[in-house]
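FIELD: query
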Amino acid sequence: VFLYPNPALDRVFIQSKEEVDIVIYDVSGRLVASQKSISSNGIDVSNLSKGIYVAQIISEEKTTSVRLVIK
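FIELD: result
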């Protein structure tokens, strides 16, 4: 599973062999975005303020946490 671009401006994409869900938290642990069944269009993050976030990428087999930087 690979999240790109990172740092991001307005949209992030996930490269994965299977369908995944994404959940994004700010540094205080507050849920700020989520999307199920990520498609090739990725997820819009243009409404997020500049800063550091934690993106959890959830598949049937595992959950991966990735540091996400928004420019």
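FIELD: remark
Residues 4 and 13 are 5 Å apart (CA to CA).
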